[in-house]
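Our consortium's second objective concerns turning raw sequence data into structural hypotheses that experimental partners can test. To show how far this objective has progressed, the report includes one record in full. It was chosen at random from the queue rather than selected for favorable results. The single chain below, 128 residues long, was entered without modification.
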Amino acid sequence: MDLLPPCNDACPAGENIQAWLAHAQAGDYEAAWRELVSNNPLPAVHGRVCYHPCEDACNRGLVDEPINIRALKRFITDQVYAEPRQPVESAAVTKKKPVAIIGAGFTGLTAAHYRLGHSWLQLGTGGP
């Protein structure tokens, strides 16, 4: 059977948690961050406000304690954002007109940026 690990399955952002944790464990925070943003355009925000259902589903909790995934995500993004870096490209940008996301949350921004290939401007912030 081809099943997702419980933590990945529980992640609302669809992150490959094992992949970015492996990079972080190796000390390659840039690679961990790049893996994070491949599915989640706002990992620093999620590292602070996510309700972390992945931790409730973590297999490690059956042995001792679940991995503190949210705190690790916050640590990784803090480490990477402290240094200059190259931007991550979105999905192939289409020739469609940009979309305005009014009152958008994580889902709307993710869909526009990664899935549909739109550039985006979040009103009230001046955009990314």
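The partners drew two points from this record. Residues 6-81 form a domain with the Fumarate Reductase Iron-sulfur Protein; Chain B, domain 2 fold (CATH 1.10.1060.10). The helical segments are 6-10, 17-25, 29-37, 43-49, 53-57, 69-81, 106-115. Both points have been shared with the crystallography group to help prioritize constructs.
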